[in-house]
Write a structure and sequence with these properties.
With 293 residues, the protein is of the alpha/beta class. The chain has three domains: 3-79; 82-126; 133-289, Dihydrofolate Reductase, subunit A (3-Layer(aba) Sandwich), CATH 3.40.430.10. Helix content is 45%, strand content 17%. It has eight helices and ten strands. The strands form two sheets. It has an eight-stranded mixed β-sheet, with helices on both faces. Helix 6 (174-180) links the parallel strand 3 and strand 4 (188-192). The chain is extended and about 75 Å long. The two termini are 31 Å apart. The mean pLDDT is 88. The protein binds NADP nicotinamide-adenine-dinucleotide phosphate.
């Protein structure tokens, strides 16, 4: 699937889901309100004496339905993230122009010295930067996998992975994709391969890591999910690392590269003891790049 087509497809899919949820809400309202109203008409039924309570419930529900309608058909349609970004950029450009004019005026008057023009505008500060994030689970010796498969079953880590990556791009090497076998739901799967004819249904296929990051540039946090080959290349481009340390020794044939602590700063650590479902102790650790790329 072409990248642009995929974006349009994703946008359309989200829009359809929003509308579907509204229509279901609307139908539930009609049915619910009819039943409630019907109950007030049944003689001897407790609501028969107090129809005002029912009308009140229906009115409150209607307000919620109305708010839902406004959100789906007005707010989200016209005032989405893209609209907000364009408005912010317009406003910043306007202010930049004013500041520049004022600076020039003051320089002419000799109040301000003639200084070299700053290359970076305000806009560059406000422009949303995306943070490619590596996510991996590794053993005591940086073990990642064996025979193109994972080497442990740790449901807590799968849950953590799902929580972080849902709604985002997940970028992976062809081998990792084939070990998973399908595009993961509610995520945009980007596969990197050198094979120009490679196809996988419901996925974006690219021929380099750079291309994968370009595809995901509008995503604030695209996740690079492996495997070893891709991690090695991505370590130079990532802004964050989300590492699950699985506290155990494993037999492996692929390993995560060494994390250089002169480059990466640990910002969060969460230790968990093993339990009935998770056979190893494990720690969720987040790192951020110390210096800008
Ligand atoms: N523990 C974890 O968190 C974790 C996460 C992910 C994966 N894994 C494990 O890691 C293993 C797979 O890792 P791996 O290193 O063997 O393979 P991989 O990184 O998943 O995929 C390697 C493939 O990616 C493509 N590729 C790599 N660099 C490229 C580039 N610059 N341009 C274009 N294509 C490029 C090539 O595909 P083509 O050969 O098609 O050209 C290459 O063969 C499995 O055992 C898996 O279970 C573990």
């Amino acid at each position: 699937m072409q990248q642009d087509q995929h974006f349009i497809y994703e946008k359309a899919r989200k829009r359809i889901q929003q509308k579907k949820r509204f229509y279901i809400h609307f139908i539930l309202f009609i049915i619910g309100a009819s039943i409630l109203y019907g109950l007030t008409l049944i003689k001897g039924f407790s609501l028969d004496n107090s129809p005002l309570i029912v009308y009140g419930i229906i009115a409150v529900w209607f307000v919620f339905l109305l708010l839902h309608f406004i959100r789906v058909f007005i707010t989200t349609k016209f005032f989405d993230d893209e609209w907000e970004r364009i408005q912010t950029e317009k406003l910043i450009k306007k202010h930049e122009k004013k500041v520049l004019q004022l600076e020039q005026k003051l320089q002419k008057q000799g109040v301000l010295p003639q200084v070299k023009k700053e290359k970076k505008g305000l806009l560059s500060i406000f422009k949303k930067k995306n943070s490619p994030t590596i996510i991996a689970a590794i053993g005591n010796n940086n073990e990642l996998g064996k025979d193109n498969n994972l080497i442990w079953h740790l449901p807590a880590d799968l849950k953590h992975f799902k929580k972080l990556t849902t709604g985002h791009h997940i970028i992976m090497g062809r081998k990792t994709f084939e070990s998973i076998g399908i595009p993961l739901p509610n995520r945009t799967t980007v596969i990197i391969t050198r094979d120009k004819n490679y196809k996988a249904q419901g996925c974006i296929v690219v021929n380099s890591l750079e291309e994968a990051l370009t595809v995901a540039k509008k995503d604030p946090t695209p996740y690079i999910i492996g495997g070893a080959d891709i991690y090695n290349q991505a370590l130079k481009k990532a802004e964050k690392l989300e590492i699950t340390y699985v506290h155990g020794d494993f037999e492996a044939d692929v390993f995560f590269p060494k994390i250089d602590l002169t480059i990466w700063e640990e910002i969060k650590r969460e230790f968990h003891k093993k339990d009935d479902k998770n056979p190893y102790d494990y720690s969720f650790v987040s790192y951020k790049r110390k210096t800008e790329l």
